[in-house]
Each structure stands twice: as C-alpha cells, then as structure tokens.
C-alpha cells in the first residue's frame, strides 16, 4: 500500500509566486470583462487552471506545467450605417459613417426664421452660419462681373463670350 504525501504545497509560493500571480491576473480579466458595457452582463465567464505533471522514469523528478486560461464574454456587435460614393472631382471612392445627414446637405429644421445667424454647436466650438435671406442668388450677374457666364439650362459656369460688337468679322468681297 502506498503512503500519502504528508506535506502540502503552498499555492501562494508555487513557481516562485507565479501560479498565484497568474490566477489573480485571470480573475481581474474576468472582473474587467464583467464591467465592460459592450459585453452580455449575464454571460458566464470561466477561469481554468490546468496543472500537467510529467514524471521522470525514476519517479523522483516531476516536470510540472501550469496553465491558467480565461473564457470571457465576447463583446457584442455594434450596428451602424455607412454611406459609400465616388468623389466626382477626383474619382476616388469614399466611405463614411452616416449620421442622419449627408455631408454638405442641410436639414430644414437646422435653419431658424429671421435674419439671425444660425449657431451650430459642434464639440464645444461655435460656428456661425448665415441664414438664407430668401432672395435667390443672381448667378448670371455675379459671374459676369468676373468674366464668366452661367448656362441657364445646366447651371455650368463657363468663360463669357466676347460681345458681338468687339468681334472682328472679316468680309471677303
């Protein structure tokens, strides 16, 4: 009959204290995972300690491997919407998160009545934006002063044509 081992191994001192350190680290990982709002609050977590013993042929030495693993709750999926398009000027594909408004567009309720500037609060900075006065822009006169003309059907801005009186017309007789 075999004798029982009389001495006990102090787990706090096993492997120079590395065993206790690994177990405490795993328990802290579980605690942080439980506190993470992006995980399922009621999911079960697990700390697994595996001691593997490999004795020598003489049975006097035992190589021991200590593995401490955790099974944590995975983070939950996050839903969002993205918009994809091509920049017509550069031809490059662009992607951005959709925040309810496409870049450059305005919503009607963003505009206030009256001639007071519209103040938009973004990240603690105030941007003053003019509120439309209600008068349409006279693009034809605006660009003609700069030597440009506007095609009324397409809205394309082009170089203004020279007036007919300033053109030299050669007439062969």
Set out the fold topology.
Blueprint: H1 18-35, E1 46-55, E2 62-71, E3 82-86, E4 93-97, E5 118-122, E6 125-129, H2 139-144, E7 148-150, E8 157-159
Antiparallel strand pairs: 1-2, 3-4, 5-6, 7-8
Protein described:
The protein has 173 residues and is α+β, with helices and mostly antiparallel strands. The protein has 3 domains: 14-71, no CATH class; 82-129, no CATH class; 134-162, no CATH class. The protein is built from 2 helices and 8 strands; from the N terminus they run H-E-E-E-E-E-E-H-E-E. It has helices at residues 18-35, 139-144, and strands at residues 46-55, 62-71, 82-86, 93-97, 118-122, 125-129, 148-150, 157-159. It has a two-stranded antiparallel ribbon. Strands 3-4 form a two-stranded antiparallel ribbon. The protein has a two-stranded antiparallel sheet with strand order 5-6. The mean pLDDT is 78.
Proportion of strand residues: 25-35%
Gap between N and C termini = 137 Å
Count every helix, treating DSSP H or I runs of 4 or more residues as helices. 2
Can you write the helix and strand succession as a string?
HEEEEEEHEE
* Whole-number tally of structural domains: 3
Give the oligomer, counting copies of the same chain as homo and different chains as hetero: single chain
Shape: rod-shaped
Q: Strand pairing plus helix content: what structural class?
A: alpha+beta
| Low-pLDDT regions | none
Beta strands, count:
8
Q: Give helix % range.
A: 10-25%
Largest sheet: 2 strands, antiparallel
Lateral arrangement of strands in the main beta sheet: 1-2
Write down the Rg: 38 Å
* Averaged pLDDT: 78
């Amino acid at each position: 009959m075999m004798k029982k081992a009389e001495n006990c191994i102090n787990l706090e001192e096993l492997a120079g204290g590395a065993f206790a350190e690994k177990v405490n680290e795993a328990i802290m990982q579980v605690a942080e995972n439980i506190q993470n709002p992006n995980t399922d609050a009621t999911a079960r977590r697990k700390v697994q300690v595996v001691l593997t013993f490999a004795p020598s042929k003489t049975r006097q030495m035992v190589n021991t491997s200590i593995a401490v693993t955790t099974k944590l709750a995975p983070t939950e999926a996050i839903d969002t919407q993205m918009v994809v398009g091509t920049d017509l000027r550069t031809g490059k594909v662009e992607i951005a998160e959709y925040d309810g408004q496409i870049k450059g567009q305005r919503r009607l309720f963003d505009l206030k009545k009256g001639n007071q500037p519209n103040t938009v609060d973004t990240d603690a900075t105030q941007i003053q934006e003019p509120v439309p006065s209600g008068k349409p822009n006279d693009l034809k006169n605006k660009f003609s002063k700069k030597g440009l003309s506007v095609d009324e059907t397409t809205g394309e801005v082009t170089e203004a044509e020279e007036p007919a009186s300033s053109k030299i017309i050669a007439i062969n007789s």
